[in-house]
Write a structure and sequence with these properties.
The chain is α+β, with helices and mostly antiparallel strands. It has one domain (about 5-30, about 45-185): q2cbj1_9rhob like domain (Jelly Rolls), CATH 2.60.120. It is built from 2 helices and 15 strands. The chain has helices at about 15-25, 55-75, and strands at about 5-10, 30, 35, 40, 45-50, 50-55, 85-95, 100-105, 115-125, 130-135, 135-140, 145, 155-160, 165-170, 170-185. The strands form 3 sheets. Strands 1, 2, 6, 7, 9, 10, 13 and 15 form an 8-stranded antiparallel β-sheet that branches. The two termini are about 20 Å apart. The model has no long low-confidence stretch (mean pLDDT about 85).
């Protein structure tokens, strides 16, 4: 693998991406983060976006099967096979220059002693011509790894270790929609 992440275009058909957006855009709420075992709405300096949770079992099953196949083919992390993790629909809008500052997707602390998020998964649902900004950027050693424009393509999947520092830049025009999930496993050794 050339990078610390993997991406592939055209994994999910454009029509299904549009269907997922239509299903979830009416249920949006201000995004929250977990802090000291509680869900809180973060300051806008950390995160500004809207989210809804995927409840459609067929969509969840398809997304999780895709995520597990990327793990088997590229990462080979020790993951729980019978997990049912949450899948988050996330919308970043130009109105407030929605974004998510530098963060990792795994956590530390007592509640994560025996298991943790190991693999993060993003599915781009919006055509890149419909928005500006909203770039997923990875921090690799002392430099920012800025993926090429091709990674923003609608239907593209991005998979990466949950401990990889990353952010979503402010959306300055239009609206970016994505699905995000995290696969869990026993703690790294």
């Amino acid at each position: 693998m050339k990078y610390n992440y993997f991406f592939q275009n055209d994994v999910v058909h454009s029509d299904l991406c549009d269907h997922i957006i239509e299903m979830h855009k009416k249920d949006l709420k201000p995004a929250e983060i977990r802090h000291q075992e509680k869900s809180i709405v973060p300051s806008n300096a950390i995160r500004k976006s809207s989210t809804a949770w995927v409840t459609d079992l067929e969509i969840k099953e398809n997304i999780l099967n895709i995520a597990h196949s990327y793990n088997q083919n590229f990462f080979n992390f020790d993951l729980y096979q019978n997990q049912n993790p949450d899948i988050q629909f996330t919308q970043y809008h130009e109105l407030d220059q929605d974004h998510y500052n530098w963060h990792i997707d795994c956590a530390t602390g007592e509640e994560f002693t025996y298991s943790q998020r190991k693999l993060s998964f993003i599915l781009n649902l919006t055509d890149p011509e419909e928005y500006e900004g909203g770039d997923v950027i990875f921090k690799v050693s002392s430099r920012d790894e800025i993926p090429s424009e091709i990674i923003k393509k609608k239907g593209t999947v991005i998979v990466f270790p949950s401990f990889l520092l990353h952010k979503v830049t402010p959306v300055t025009k239009g609206c970016r929609n994505s699905l995000v999930t995290w696969l869990w496993g026993p703690s790294f050794r």
